[in-house]
Design goal:
By secondary structure, this protein is mainly β. It is built from one helix and eleven strands. Strand 2 and strand 3 form a beta hairpin.
C-alpha cells in the first residue's frame, strides 16, 4: 500500500480494511483491526528522557495517530544485522507526556521490531548500551 506523503515530515496511510499495511517511504508497518487512516511523522527525541533507561537511540521517533483507533500493532523498521547480535539488544520506546516506557518487542524480524499497541503517541527504537569491560591494547 502506498502512503500519501502530505509533506516532507508528515505522512498519511489510508487502510481500507483490516490487515497489515506498510508505508513505502518510512518502512513502518501497521496491523489494522479494521478500516482507518494512520497519520504519522518524525519528531525530535528528548534525549534527557532516555538518560535513565541505559539505552541509546536506534532509529527515528514517530508521532503516530489513528482517529479510528484501529491500529493494534506496530512494526518499526531497523537495520541491525541478524547474525551480529544487535537484534537482541533492541527495545521499543513508548513516549507519553514527560515519560518513556521501554517495551520489549514481541519479536524482532530481519527488518522490523514488532510491538502491540493499545494507544498511539510517540514510538521509536532503542538499543541497549553494551559495555565491554575488557580493554585490549598495546603500549609503547
Amino acid at each position: 500500500m502506498q502512503c500519501d506523503g502530505c509533506c516532507a515530515a508528515a505522512s498519511r496511510l489510508q487502510c481500507p480494511h483490516a490487515g497489515l499495511f506498510q508505508c513505502s517511504l518510512t518502512g513502518l508497518m501497521f496491523l489494522m483491526e479494521g478500516e482507518g487512516e494512520v497519520l504519522y511523522r518524525t519528531v525530535q527525541w528528548d534525549e534527557g528522557l532516555l538518560s535513565s533507561t541505559g539505552q541509546s537511540l536506534a532509529g527515528p521517533l514517530f508521532s503516530i495517530d489513528c482517529p479510528q483507533k484501529s491500529v493494534c500493532q506496530l512494526h518499526l523498521p531497523h537495520c541491525e544485522l541478524p547474525d551480529g547480535g544487535g537484534c537482541e539488544s533492541l527495545s521499543v520506546a513508548h513516549v507519553t507526556d514527560d515519560s518513556v516506557e521501554v517495551v520489549p518487542p514481541l519479536r524482532v524480524t530481519d527488518t522490523h521490531a514488532v510491538v502491540d499497541v493499545t494507544h498511539l503517541s510517540l514510538w521509536g527504537l532503542l538499543k541497549k548500551i553494551l559495555f565491554n569491560s575488557t580493554i585490549t591494547g598495546q603500549g609503547i
